[in-house]
Amino acid sequence: MSQAQKIMVIRHGEKPKGSLPPYGVTTAGEQDVNSLLVTGWARAGALAVLFAPSRGPLQSSGLATPNAVFAASDDAAASSKRPFETVSIVAQKLGLNVNTSFAVGQEVQLSAAVIATGGVALIGWEHKHIPLIANAILANTSAPQTWPGDRFDMVWVFDLAADGKSYTFTQAPELLLPGDSTETFPADGA
């Protein structure tokens, strides 16, 4: 069975904080509380260059160009379109379809499917549930168990270890938009 060599997980881009401005906006320019803010769309566009540069090497040697892209299904109760919207531009640039077969709450099943893809996979997800993906990939809780609610600027990277069975974990700051931080997330208790 072929295993993914690298799995990269990102949080969806910036979102509205409620029903007051600034509002989320769809690709058609319509107000939508379940869509990205304009800043989130800017991040989504910048992510396309981060993962698939038009010229030159990748910005970070820890990243790779994905051959499979996954996002949380918007069939969940929250109906958030943000994970899909965030990775859709990367997928479009690479001529890939976004796999939305899994909803928030199905992180174990998602992780198994992603591991089985082979190659390099990118996942766009909801931040509160990303640690569950990490736990399933690593088969332990060594990754941070919380994703800060105010951070949209990090890539969690899982590389297939030399044993061909387990994964190592690192974090790569995106550094795409003003205000993005170089600070990685601390492990719990750190």
Number of strands: 6
Structural class: alpha/beta
Q: Could you say what the CATH topology is called? A: Rossmann fold
- What count of domains describes the coordinates? 1
pLDDT averaged residue by residue: 93
CATH superfamily: Phosphoglycerate mutase-like
Protein name: Phosphoglycerate mutase
Organism: Caballeronia catudaia
In short:
The protein is α/β, with parallel strands linked by helices and 190 residues long. It has helices at residues 38-51, 82-94, 107-115, 130-138, and strands spanning 4-11, 68-71, 98-99, 119-125, 154-160, 167-173.
Please describe what this structure looks like.
A six-stranded mixed beta sheet has the order 3-2-4-1-5-6. The N and C termini lie far apart (37 Å). Helix 1 (38-51) packs parallel to helix 2 (82-94) and helix 3 (107-115) crosses helix 4. With 190 residues, the protein is an alpha/beta fold. The mean pLDDT is 93. It has helices at 38-51, 82-94, 107-115, 130-138; strands at 4-11, 68-71, 98-99, 119-125, 154-160, 167-173. The chain has four helices and six strands. This is Phosphoglycerate mutase.
Keyword list:
Rossmann fold; 190 residues; single chain; Phosphoglycerate mutase
